Amino acid sequence: MTGNSPLTFQVLGKCSKTKARRGLMMLRQTKPVETPVFMPVGTQGTLKGVLVNQLKKDNMNCQIMLGNTYHLGLRPGPEILKKIGGLHKFMAWDRALLTDSGGFQMVSLLQLAEITEQGVKFQSPFDSSVECMLTPEESIKLQNVIGADIIMQLDDVVKTTTTGPRVEEAMHRTIRWIDRCLEANERNHDQSIFPIVQGGLQPALRQQCAEELTKREVRGFAVGGLSGGESKDDFWKIVSLSTDMLPQDKPRYLMGVGFASDLIVCVALGIDMFDCVFPTRTARFGCALVRTGQLNLRQQKYECDLTPIDEKCGCSTCKTYTKAYIHAVINEPIMCSLLTIHNVYFQLQLMRDMRDAIENDKFPEFVKTFMDELYPEEKPKWIVDALKSVNVDL
User: Fold this and answer.
1) Residue 233: its pLDDT value, please?
2) Would you please indicate which residues are annotated as catalytic (active-site) residues?
3) Residue closest to 211 by CA, chosen among 162, 247, 166
């Protein structure tokens, strides 16, 4: 650990063509995190069906996980977490953790959520007659109890495709709320707040938001309000604009992105950190991630297939079980465990491959090989355009 900061970021190498970079986050509380990195989402301090020790094994080597403040606040709740000394101890995880602010769940999951200048007003999930309020201060207070290494500001969340004055209102409120969050943080010595760049699909608002947020003394930045139904063409352009505006010496986290092609494009555009429920959620539906897309192991054609999901995969599922076995237990709890292990491994291995390619200055070649395998015929135009913008011609 260098200096007195609870989080430092070092760029170890850059791609000579694209904006991709390999970095290292050093954290006071836990082990370092190599970037670019994918963070599996452990909503309530767990990935469903997977033990913490399985995530820490050498072949998996998960370095950071995400927890959901809203769900952790409901169960086990702040009193239990405070009593045991935070989420790291509660879940026996000695590696890095990041928590969201709870705002997204408030707006997306709860009925009649209303955002005011004070905070997010919502009905209690236990008693609809009781009105609750999540303020920037309360969000940070709860995240201080949870104790993650990286914590997120409460932002004003609007649907990605929203247009009109509401987008600008949310952007300005997000800027005002970061100051309240920073002031409320009682653990600045070991927890780092990331502000969230908002502004919808309007470049001018995104630029204004980034300019304001970069004036604050923070150790990293998030790009929010994307991957919510907007066109992929709008998506990549806002990501690229955001990385151009954010500091080179601090990590950049793109929230809620997890498809393999999206990860590769956004690494090429300069993003360092990602999270998404996709790999774990799709596992619970019986789908395995592979370089060519997905395999739905519920399909009858796998009933007698005695090969692993992926011959080249190093996960414990592929080393031990066949597609036929997973098909046979498709409605049993073990299926969730086996496919979650595989899918998380797939994501983490993809990030390791990208880090190696960047380090060896072979990233454009890696991208072309991957895209040729995933899209053997015509490639999506947005991917072609996005990669062309950073000198990779598919």
Assistant:
1) 98
2) 100, 275
3) 247
Question: Cα separation of 102 and 135, whole Å?
Answer: 10
Residue pair 50/347 in contact by the 8 Å Cβ criterion = no
* C-alpha to C-alpha distance for 266 and 329, rounded to whole angstroms: 36
Burial class of residue 92 in the structure, from the number of CB atoms within 10 Å of its CB (0-12 exposed, 13-18 middle, 19+ buried): exposed
Residue type, 33: V
Inter-residue contact 387 to 268 (CB < 8 Å): yes
Could you tell me the pTM of the whole model?
0.97
Tens digit of each residue's pLDDT (9 = 90 or more) over 101-153: 988 876 676 566 889 999 998 877 777 778 889 999 999 999 999 999 999 99
The C-alpha atoms of residue 180 and residue 172 are separated, in whole angstroms, by 13
Residue at token pair 């598919």: 394
pLDDT tens digit string along 296-352?
A: 999 999 999 999 999 999 999 999 999 999 999 999 999 999 999 999 999 999 999
Q: b or e along 291-310 (b: 16 or more beta carbons within 10 Å of the residue's beta carbon)? A: eeeebebeeeebeebeebbb
Q: How many CB atoms lie within 10 A of CB 103?
A: 27
